[in-house]
TrEMBL record:
Gene3D superfamilies: Hotdog Thioesterase. InterPro entries: 4-hydroxybenzoyl-CoA_TE, HotDog_dom_sf. This is Acyl-CoA thioesterase.
Length: 144
């Protein structure tokens, strides 16, 4: 099986590790991976054409995080730069699953993988809906 590299991703996010992100164990605290993953997820949403910070009443629907998990592979320390590649891993009737792969430029390796399960919410009805065809089209345009 071929190893995943950052070149495998059309959507990439670069994060410069800050000194203050390290914890008492002298490595980046795990909560920062969640924050970095959120930035990567928003970059993916923007590539799909979603306008971030738009007033909800003006949107028909929007992507909302329904579940997330992070697999930590290797610790990161300051100074470093993390490049995150994000792609759609699965599409289901009521959600799509993004995977973000965190690569350390200092270590030249994969250091974490985040899974984001994204549901689509109809803001007017305040409920989850099936994935609209327009979103499926955007995903396919990014991934194909």
């Amino acid at each position: 099986m071929r190893q995943v590299t950052i070149a495998d991703f059309k959507i990439q996010t670069t994060i410069v590790v800050q000194w203050g992100e390290m914890d008492a164990y002298q490595h980046v605290n795990n909560v920062n991976y969640v924050r970095w993953g959120e930035t990567a997820r928003v970059d993916y949403f923007r590539a799909m054409g979603f306008i971030i910070n738009q007033e909800p009443k003006k949107m028909l629907y929007a992507p909302i995080l329904g579940f997330q998990s992070v697999k930590y592979i290797a610790p990161v320390v300051y100074p470093d730069t993390i490049v995150i590649g994000t792609k759609t891993d699965a599409i289901k009737d009521d959600r799509f699953v993004l995977k973000s792969y965190f690569f350390s430029t200092q270590q030249n390796r994969l250091v974490a993988i985040q899974t984001h399960e994204v549901v689509i919410v109809d803001y007017n009805k305040q409920q989850k809906i099936a994935i609209p065809q327009a979103i499926l089209d955007e995903i396919h345009q990014i991934e194909d």
